[in-house]
């Protein structure tokens, strides 16, 4: 008999079905036992005659197969229940559960949650985070493909870090050494130059940063895009506005069940996202919040304050900060005058979720900028050679998936939106 998912059972009233899943809750009486069974689609109450079962086999989180008749019922879960005819244990839970996952809220600390990651993911609210995450990824991909972008898959073993810094993981590569990719940046640009014009990638990136904060990971998923024949960074920001609207609308249509479960209010991006230059942001921080310790970059407190300013004064959950100082942006970033760049960050609910901008497309300018950043052009020949053969004006952006998910859902720590965490202290599970 073919397995039926719980969310389809209302189509089988008075019919015999086979369902399979985990035992979520148990209530044993003298002659019958009520078992709440869970599969990926929901919960269902099953009524079992105790003659059919061995009480030793009825353990929370055991995986079981049940055959029975779907009967109309007025229980708390559904307008039906299963009158069990046959009960089979597929995989018995052998040990006492380290966390209680059949409660409405998990109520454990983050360390315990991550130490028991597979079990914690079985909890309805924790699982819902990744159902929402999946729709965000699908929305990003769907929108860009409709706009003529090609999805690419670039190497994660590289000879140099794309950011030109030292925060890379070194890997033994036969007789040589390689690094785990910080970003697909070089390859995105190469594929624009290769004639694809519009490309995107959703993939893991690696940063060997010594951070131990609620916003940093050493391995995370980056949603990257790059496209050619732009005028300047404004074209990139407009594209991001449009795909954010598309994603939020998709979430509203497809994930309302999970948003309600997590008590989430989606951000409003119907209008244009406000833009302020970096220099103006520094002024606002000084005048409005008496924050005077910044010069060439924003710290976490500054990002939080600017988001408060955007919400209170501009009515927006999002704010673009543009024209970051040249000294703080990577060597491929297009300069704007002597000190600024054609670049931007998108801040959202207190944190930077996107970095982007126009890239240098002229070979001589790129070589000079690599030198300006104190780097050796000889180390980047396979990348810079491309620019000798005609490259359009282009630019792009990168979004940290875990960050945008955690901020949309109001999570306190980016690790909560990370399926399996890799940070300064965690290499298992």
UniProtKB/TrEMBL annotation:
The gene is aspS. Residues 130-429 form the Aminoacyl-transfer RNA synthetases class-II family profile domain. InterPro entries: Aa-tRNA-synt_II (IPR004364), aa-tRNA-synth_II (IPR006195), aa-tRNA-synth_II/BPL/LPL (IPR045864), Asp-tRNA_synthase_2 (IPR004523), Asp/Asn-tRNA-synth_IIb (IPR002312), NA-bd_OB-fold (IPR012340), NA-bd_OB_tRNA (IPR004365). Signal peptide: none annotated. Keywords: Aminoacyl-tRNA synthetase, ATP-binding, Cytoplasm, Ligase, Nucleotide-binding, Protein biosynthesis. GO terms for biological process: aspartyl-tRNA aminoacylation. It is found in: Cytoplasm. Its EC number is 6.1.1.12. It is an enzyme of class 6 (ligase). L-aspartate binds at residues 163, 207, 355, 359. It catalyses: tRNA(Asp) + L-aspartate + ATP = L-aspartyl-tRNA(Asp) + AMP + diphosphate. This is Aspartate--tRNA ligase. One of its GO terms (molecular function) is catalytic activity, acting on a protein.
């Amino acid at each position: 008999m073919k397995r039926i998912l719980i969310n389809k059972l209302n189509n089988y009233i008075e019919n015999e079905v086979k369902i399979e899943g985990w035992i979520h809750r148990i209530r044993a009486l003298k002659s019958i036992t009520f078992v709440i069974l869970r599969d990926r689609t929901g919960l269902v109450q099953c009524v079992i005659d105790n003659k059919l079962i061995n009480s030793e086999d009825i353990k929370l989180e055991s995986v079981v197969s049940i055959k029975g008749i779907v009967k109309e019922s007025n229980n708390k879960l559904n307008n039906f229940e299963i009158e069990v005819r046959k009960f089979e244990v597929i995989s018995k839970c052998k040990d006492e559960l380290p966390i209680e996952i059949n409660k409405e809220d998990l109520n454990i600390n983050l360390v315990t949650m991550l130490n028991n990651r597979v079990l914690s993911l079985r909890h309805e609210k924790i699982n819902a985070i990744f159902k929402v995450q999946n729709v965000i990824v699908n929305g990003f991909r769907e929108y860009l493909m409709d706009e003529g972008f090609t999805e690419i898959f670039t190497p994660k073993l590289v000879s140099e870090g794309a950011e030109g810094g030292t925060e890379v993981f070194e890997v033994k590569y036969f007789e040589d050494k390689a690094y785990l990719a910080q970003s697909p940046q070089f390859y995105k640009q190469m594929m624009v130059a290769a004639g694809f014009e519009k490309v995107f990638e959703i993939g893991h990136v690696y940063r060997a940063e010594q951070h131990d904060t609620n916003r940093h990971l050493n391995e995370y998923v980056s949603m990257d895009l790059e496209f050619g024949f732009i005028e300047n960074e404004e074209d990139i920001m407009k594209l991001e506005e449009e795909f954010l609207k598309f994603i939020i609308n998709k979430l509203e249509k497809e994930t309302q069940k999970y948003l309600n479960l997590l008590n989430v209010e989606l951000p409003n991006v119907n209008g244009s996202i406000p833009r302020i230059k970096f220099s103006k942001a520094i002024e606002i921080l000084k005048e409005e919040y008496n924050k005077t310790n910044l010069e060439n970059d924003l710290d976490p407190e500054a990002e939080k304050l600017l988001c408060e300013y955007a919400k209170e004064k501009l009515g927006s959950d999002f704010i673009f900060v543009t024209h970051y100082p040249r000294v703080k942006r990577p060597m491929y970033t297009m300069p704007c005058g002597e000190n600024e760049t054609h670049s931007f960050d998108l801040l959202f609910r207190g944190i930077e979720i996107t970095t982007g901008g126009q890239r240098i497309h002229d070979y001589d300018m790129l070589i000079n900028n690599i030198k300006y950043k104190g780097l050796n052009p000889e180390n980047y020949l396979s990348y810079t050679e491309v620019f000798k053969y005609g490259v359009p004006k282009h630019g792009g952006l990168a979004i940290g998936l875990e960050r945008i998910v955690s901020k949309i859902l109001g999570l306190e720590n980016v690790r909560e939106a990370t399926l399996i965490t890799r940070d300064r202290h965690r290499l298992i599970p």
